């Protein structure tokens, strides 16, 4: 026997702030655009900005962020071909560079969606040539060559540049339009970065001597953009700075993570909270339950370490963070009620929880904090134009 349900009963237009679990990530697109202006003020009018929106714009939402930035930047950088395809399907027309590797039949998607590959494997030249023959015979594909100058991740060894150019010269459908490398420690060791820049300059010299003239050179990430003026070249590749973090002056955080109190209880001294009795109250304690947990990207490593904001007060996370919920000591909040706002990342009154705070409490980096906020946390976009 079949059970049927009237579609009108299940398909509704929800207001995610009132009808669904109240945990949301607010994305301030006005702050995002302002941060792009900050980068522009540093690099000047002649250097292009390649906005890095890989990993769903570091968890902020790639399509929405790209739409907000498209008029302010030269183009966008992604890691995966499918990320570039998502932007094209989202209506983004600006250049899109695929900074990572290419797998399976993804070479065909690069051609079909007019993406620009950043290549470091000589075998990819054959695959891209075949993709052009199959999809866009008679056309040319511009590609950027990545040189490994010390990151030791991906990139062509300087010693292999000659063989790569020999193979490229035999493929008239492929054109070297860009050259790049990646800085391993731009925010730290200046000497290491200088060594990389010297290696890169040597590779550029060899490429030029072989008769190749790529029109776009790019090296600097966010830290490199700020610290090394001679690494800006034609394009810079800011990532974290666009989302409001780094050493640039006047950056504004783009993401806030918020929820609400859904339960309150009084715990007596000597009683424990959450799995494993990792927290035992040393006094009579008012405990608030907040509907966010490690399935949302709020790590179990925050257990007993992190703080949230409630009633304008910094409150300790107590007991083990669970999959869907966490508990907070709100004893010192003068007035706390069901439905009260809880800020896990962002500002409330005079207090602020930063991504660096969260990273410190969980022994990681700000990048991982943003990328870890899971898809089941709705993104609410503010400042859309």
Task: Give the helices and strands, then pairings.
Elements: H1 7-10, E1 24-28, H2 29-43, E2 48-52, H3 54-58, H4 62-69, E3 75-78, H5 81-89, E4 96-98, H6 106-112, E5 116-119, H7 123-135, E6 141-146, H8 161-169, E7 174-180, H9 190-209, E8 216-218, H10 222-227, E9 235-236, E10 255-260, E11 263-267, E12 272-273, E13 279-280, E14 285-290, E15 307-310, E16 313-318, E17 326-329, E18 341-348, E19 351-353, H11 355-361, H12 366-372, E20 379-382
Parallel strand pairs: 1-20, 2-3, 2-9, 3-4, 4-5, 5-6, 6-7, 7-8
Antiparallel strand pairs: 1-10, 10-18, 11-14, 12-13, 14-17, 15-16, 15-18, 16-17, 18-19
In short:
The protein is α/β, with parallel strands linked by helices and 385 residues long.
Describe the structure in your own words.
With about 375 residues, the protein is of the alpha/beta class. It folds into 2 domains: about 30-245, Alpha-Beta Barrel (TIM Barrel), CATH 3.20.20.10; about 255-355, Lyase, Ornithine Decarboxylase, Chain A, domain 1. About 30% of the residues lie in helices and about 25% in strands. The protein has 12 helices and 20 strands. The protein has helices spanning about 5-10, 30-45, 55-60, 60-70, 80-90, 105-110, 125-135, 160-170, 190-210, 220-225, 355-360, 365-370, and strands at about 25-30, 50, 75-80, 95-100, 115-120, 140-145, 175-180, 215-220, 235, 255-260, 265, 270-275, 280, 285-290, 305-310, 315-320, 325-330, 340-350, 350-355, 380. The strands form 3 sheets. Strands 1, 10, 11, 14, 15, 16, 17, 18, 19 and 20 form a 10-stranded mixed beta sheet that branches. An 8-stranded parallel beta sheet has the order 8-7-6-5-4-3-2-9. A two-stranded antiparallel ribbon has the order 12-13. Helix 2 packs across helix 4 (about 60-70) and helix 11 packs across helix 12. It is elongated and about 80 Å long. The termini are far apart. Residues about 1-10 have low confidence and may be disordered.
């Amino acid at each position: 026997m079949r059970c049927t349900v009237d579609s009108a009963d299940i398909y509704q237009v929800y207001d995610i702030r009132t009808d669904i679990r109240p945990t949301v990530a607010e994305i301030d697109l006005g702050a995002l655009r302002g941060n792009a202006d900050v980068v522009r003020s540093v690099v000047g009018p002649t250097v292009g900005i390649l906005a890095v929106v890989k990993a769903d714009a570091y968890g902020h939402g790639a399509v929405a962020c790209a739409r907000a930035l498209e008029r302010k930047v030269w183009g966008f950088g992604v890691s995966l071909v499918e990320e570039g395809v998502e932007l094209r399907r989202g209506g983004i027309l600006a250049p899109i560079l695929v900074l990572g590797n290419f797998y399976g039949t993804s070479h065909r998607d690069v051609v079909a969606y007019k993406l620009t590959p950043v290549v470091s494997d000589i075998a990819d030249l054959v695959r891209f040539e075949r993709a052009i023959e199959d999809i866009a015979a008679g056309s040319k594909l511009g590609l950027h060559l990545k040189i490994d100058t010390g990151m030791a991740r991906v990139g062509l060894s300087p010693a292999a540049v000659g063989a790569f150019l020999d193979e490229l010269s035999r493929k008239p459908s492929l054109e070297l339009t860009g050259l790049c490398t990646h800085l391993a420690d731009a925010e730290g060791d200046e000497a290491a970065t200088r060594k990389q820049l010297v290696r890169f300059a040597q590779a550029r010299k060899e490429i030029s001597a072989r008769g190749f003239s790529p029109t776009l050179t790019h090296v600097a990430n966010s830290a490199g953009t700020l610290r090394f003026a001679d690494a800006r070249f034609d394009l810079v590749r800011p990532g974290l700075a666009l989302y409001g973090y780094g050493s640039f002056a006047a950056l504004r955080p783009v993401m806030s993570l918020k929820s609400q109190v859904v339960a309150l209880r009084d715990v007596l001294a000597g009683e424990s909270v959450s799995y494993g009795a990792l927290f035992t109250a040393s006094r009579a304690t008012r405990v608030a339950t907040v509907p966010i947990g490690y399935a949302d990207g709020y790590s179990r490593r925050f257990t007993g370490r992190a703080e949230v904001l409630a009633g304008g007060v910094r409150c300790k996370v107590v007991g083990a963070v669970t999959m869907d919920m966490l508990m907070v000591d709100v004893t010192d909040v003068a007035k706390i009620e069901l439905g009260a706002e809880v800020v896990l990342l962002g500002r409330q009154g005079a207090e602020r929880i930063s991504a660096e705070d969260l990273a410190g409490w969980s022994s990681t980096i700000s990048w991982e904090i943003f990328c870890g906020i899971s898809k089941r946390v709705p993104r609410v976009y503010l400042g859309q134009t």
